[in-house]
Specification:
Elements (H helix, E strand, L loop, with lengths): L1 H17 L2 H27 L3 H23 L6 H11 L4 E5 L2 E4 H18 L8 E4 L4 H12 L4 E3 L6 H11 L3 E4 L9 H6 L3 E4 L9 E3 L1 H6 L18 E7 L7 E6 H13 L7 E4 L6 H14 L2 E4 L5 H10 L4 E5 H9 L13 E5 L3 H11 L3 E6 L8 E2 L9 E2 L2 H6 L2 E4 L1 E2 L4 E2 L16 E6 L13 H6 L1 E3 L7 E11 L4 E7 L3 E4 L2 E4 H8 L5 E9 L8 E8 L7 H11 L8 E4 L14 H6 L10 E5 L4 E4 L2 H8 L6
Parallel strand pairs: 1-11, 3-4, 3-5, 4-8, 5-6, 6-7, 10-11, 10-12, 12-13, 13-14, 27-28
Antiparallel strand pairs: 1-2, 8-9, 14-15, 16-23, 17-20, 18-19, 20-22, 21-22, 22-23, 24-25, 26-27, 28-29, 29-30
Helix pairs in contact: 3-10, 5-6, 10-11, 13-14
Length: 643
C-alpha cells in the first residue's frame, strides 16, 4: 500500500525534475484548471440540477429557430409539403405509414397524393386558395388527400367526424369551404339539403353511392395520373398563408376554426425535433388526425423528421403494447385519458418488453404518470402545454413528474409571456388603480397570457371576429399592449417548472375533447321540458378532466322527461359532450352581469347525499336518464359503472 502511494507522489516530482520549467508550470496549471472544472461541474450540478437538459434543449431550440427564419426568407417558399417531396426523392422505398397490416412508402404516398390532386382538379374544379373540408377518420387516405390538396395550393379544414348536424353545418360556413371530402358512411343525410342550398359539393371516398347529391371520388382517384403536379399550382403560398383550419371549442359557443398558417405548421412540426426524435424513430399515432396533436405534432412532425408512422384508427389499450412490439415503435403519443387507460389495463408479464423511448402528449395526472413509469419502464415522458390557436407553449424536457413545461430565458425572450392575477368569481383579470393587470408572484396561480408580437402572432378564428377579439387582452402590463388570453390558470415554481392548474370560462375537457358549455346548453333547451340550462364540468375521482353536468330549470308545469331529454342529447351531441348528470333546480343563480354562476355548482359536484335537488344520470344501457341514487354514485366512485 505504501509502495503504491510513493509511486503516485514520485511521478509528478520526477516530472518536475525532468521536464523544462515552462512545461512544469503548464502541467500544474492544467491540473489546477481540471480540478476547478470538476469542482465547478459538481457545484453547478448541485445548484442547477437541470443545467445539462436546459442547455441541450436551448441549443436545439436555437437551431430550429434559425431554420424557421431561413424558411421565412427563402424564395420560393419552402413548405412542409416540399420537405415531404424531398424525403420521397431521397428514400422513396422507406416506409412512411403502417396501417392495419399494410405498408405505404414515401414514394407510394407521393404518387397517391398526385392522383388525389388530379382527380379533385378535374372533378371539383379546385383552384389555388379554395378551402376543402376533410370529414375523415384516421386512415391513410387522410394523409394523401391532405398532401394532394397542398399540391393544389388549397387549405384544408379538419373536421371532427364526431360532430353532428348544427355543429357540422356551422363548421362549413365559418371557413367558407365549398367542397367536403368524407369517409364512407360518415355524412348524415339530414344535412345534405342544407349543404346543397349552400352550394357545397360532397365527395365520398367510395367507389359507389346511391344517395342523391353525393359524388364518389375513389373511382376517379384510381383512374387519375400519378405524375407530379406543377409547382405553379401553389406558387401563391408563402409563410403567412393559411395552411389549415383546425376546430377548437375555445371558451364558448360552437366550434371555432383556428387559422393555422404555414409558419405555425412548421413551428408545431419542430416539437418532435425539440424532444430529440430522429429520422430513425417509429412514431405511433393513435390520436385523431383532426386534432393538432395527431396532425401537427404526430403526422407533420414525422414528415419533418423523415421517420415512419404507425397509424391507428383509434386508441386501443388492449392492442397498444402488442402494436408497439409488432412495429418496433420508439415514440408514442398520449393524452391523459389514454395514459390512464393503459395503467388500468390488466397487468401482464412482458409489459416492459418494448422499444418505446419517448411519450409525447399532454394532460396526464401526476399519479398516473408515476404509475406509468413504474409499470412500463424508463420512458421519457415529454408533457406539453399548448393551444392550437395560441402563441405560447411549453415542453417539459426533463424527468420532472407533474410539470407541463419549463421556463428559460431564451423562450421568454422570443415569446414573451406572463402570469397575471385572475378573479375566479368574476371570471376576469385583476387590475390595479391604473387599469393594468397585476403579475402573479412566483408560486402563485395566475392566468397565462402571451404577448402578441411579429414573432408570436395571434391570427384568430376564421369568420368569427367577435370570438377572436375575446381572446385578445389589452393594457396588460402597459397601456396599449396586446396579449393572447389562453384562458388557462398555471403556476411557475421556484425551479422554473410550469404546472397546469385549471381552465377558466365556459369550457371543460372530457375524453381528450374540449366541450363548449353554451353549445350543450343550446341543445338541452331544445328538449320540450327544459326552459334554461347551466352546463359545467365536474371532477370524477380517478378520471382525467371534467365530465359534463347541467343544472336545469324546467318549464312551468313540466316534469323532467328522462327519455326525451336522452334522445335530444344523443341525437345532437357527440358522446364526450353529453351531460352525464342533470340537476333540477327551482331557479338558476346569476351574477351581477347576468352570467350563470358555475363555481359553486362545480364544487358541489354530483353526490346525492350532499344536496336536496333531484339528480339524474345518463344510463347508456337503459338509454334514458335515471334518478341518481347513492348506489349509482358508489358504483361510479368504485368504477363499476364506466363513464
Amino acid at each position: 500500500m505504501r509502495k503504491s502511494v510513493k509511486k503516485r507522489i514520485f511521478l509528478p516530482s520526477c516530472l518536475c525534475v525532468l521536464l523544462p520549467s515552462a512545461l512544469c508550470k503548464m502541467y500544474i496549471c492544467f491540473t489546477v484548471i481540471a480540478g476547478l472544472a470538476i469542482l465547478s461541474f459538481f457545484f453547478l450540478r448541485t445548484r442547477f440540477p437541470y443545467l445539462g437538459e436546459d442547455c441541450a434543449y436551448i441549443l436545439r431550440s436555437i437551431k430550429l429557430g434559425f431554420r424557421l427564419i431561413k424558411y421565412k426568407k427563402v424564395k420560393p417558399f419552402y413548405s412542409v409539403l416540399d420537405c415531404f417531396l424531398d424525403a420521397a426523392k431521397r428514400h422513396p422505398s422507406k416506409i412512411f405509414l403502417h396501417f392495419e397490416g399494410r405498408e405505404y412508402t414515401y414514394g407510394e404516398v407521393d404518387k397517391l397524393s398526385n392522383k388525389v390532386a388530379r382527380a379533385l382538379q378535374a372533378e371539383a374544379r379546385l383552384k389555388k386558395g379554395d378551402v376543402v373540408a376533410l370529414f375523415l377518420a384516421n386512415e391513410p387516405s387522410f394523409v394523401w388527400t391532405w398532401l394532394g390538396l397542398a399540391k393544389l395550393g388549397c387549405p384544408a379544414a379538419l373536421l371532427n367526424f364526431n360532430i353532428r348536424s348544427k355543429s357540422l353545418l356551422h363548421c362549413f360556413s365559418c371557413c367558407s369551404a365549398k367542397v367536403i371530402i368524407a369517409s364512407s358512411g360518415e355524412i348524415q343525410q339530414d344535412v345534405l339539403p342544407t349543404l346543397r342550398e349552400q352550394g357545397i359539393s360532397v365527395y365520398l371516398l367510395s367507389e359507389a353511392c346511391s344517395i342523391q347529391g353525393i359524388n364518389t371520388l375513389s373511382d376517379k382517384i384510381s383512374q387519375a395520373s400519378d405524375q407530379p403536379l406543377s409547382w405553379d399550382l401553389r406558387a401563391n403560398v408563402n409563410i403567412r398563408s393559411t395552411a389549415l383550419y383546425i376546430y377548437t371549442s375555445g371558451t364558448t359557443g360552437l366550434p371555432k376554426a383556428a387559422v393555422v398558417t404555414q409558419e405555425r405548421v412548421w413551428a408545431a412540426s419542430f416539437i418532435q425535433a425539440a424532444c430529440g426524435i430522429t429520422s430513425e424513430d417509429i412514431f405511433y399515432v393513435n390520436l385523431p388526425l383532426y386534432h393538432s396533436a395527431g396532425f401537427l405534432i404526430g403526422m407533420v412532425g414525422s414528415i419533418e423528421r423523415g421517420n415512419t408512422i404507425v397509424l391507428k384508427r383509434k386508441f386501443s389499450a388492449s392492442q397498444f403494447w402488442s402494436d408497439c412490439r409488432k412495429y418496433n415503435v420508439t415514440v408514442m403519443q398520449y393524452i391523459g385519458e389514454t395514459m390512464r387507460y393503459l395503467c388500468n389495463a390488466p397487468k401482464k408479464d412482458n409489459e416492459k418488453n418494448h422499444g418505446v423511448k419517448f411519450a409525447i402528449g399532454n394532460g396526464v395526472r401526476t399519479d398516473i404518470w408515476s404509475e406509468f413509469l413504474n409499470r412500463f419502464g424508463d420512458i421519457k415522458v415529454r408533457e406539453l402545454y399548448a393551444a392550437t390557436e395560441g402563441n405560447i407553449g411549453f415542453i417539459n424536457y426533463t424527468s420532472k413528474i407533474g410539470a407541463v413545461g419549463r421556463v428559460n430565458f431564451v423562450h421568454r425572450f422570443f415569446f414573451p409571456f406572463t402570469l397575471i392575477k385572475f378573479d375566479i368569481e368574476k371570471e376576469e383579470p385583476v387590475r390595479n388603480s391604473e387599469g393594468l393587470c397585476i403579475e402573479a408572484a412566483r408560486g402563485e396561480t395566475g392566468l397565462l397570457v402571451g404577448k402578441v408580437t411579429q414573432r408570436s402572432p395571434f391570427v384568430g378564428y376564421a369568420g368569427n371576429q367577435q370570438q377572436t377579439e375575446k381572446k385578445r387582452l389589452r393594457d396588460v402590463l402597459k397601456k396599449g399592449d396586446l396579449y393572447f388570453n389562453t384562458g388557462d390558470l398555471l403556476r411557475f415554481d421556484h425551479m422554473n417548472f410550469v404546472y397546469f392548474q385549471d381552465r377558466v370560462g365556459d369550457t371543460f375537457r372530457w375524453k381528450g375533447e374540449n366541450v363548449a358549455t353554451s353549445e350543450v346548453a343550446d341543445i338541452l333547451t331544445m328538449a320540450p321540458c327544459i326552459l334554461e340550462a347551466n352546463v359545467y364540468g365536474v371532477k370524477v375521482e380517478g378520471h382525467e378532466g371534467r365530465i359534463g353536468m347541467a343544472a336545469v330549470l324546467l318549464k312551468e308545469g313540466e316534469d323532467f322527461d328522462c327519455l326525451q331529454t336522452y334522445k335530444q342529447v344523443v341525437n345532437y351531441l357527440p358522446a364526450y359532450a353529453r351531460p352525464r348528470f342533470i340537476r333540477i333546480q327551482p331557479c338558476l343563480e346569476m351574477t351581477g352581469t347576468f352570467k350563470m354562476k358555475k363555481v359553486k355548482l362545480v364544487e358541489e359536484g354530483f353526490n346525492p347525499a350532499h344536496m336536496e335537488d333531484p339528480l339524474y344520470f345518463l344510463d347508456t344501457e337503459k338509454k334514458m336518464y335515471v334518478p341518481l341514487t347513492e348506489d349509482i354514485y358508489r358504483a361510479i366512485a368504485c368504477r363499476e359503472i364506466k363513464l
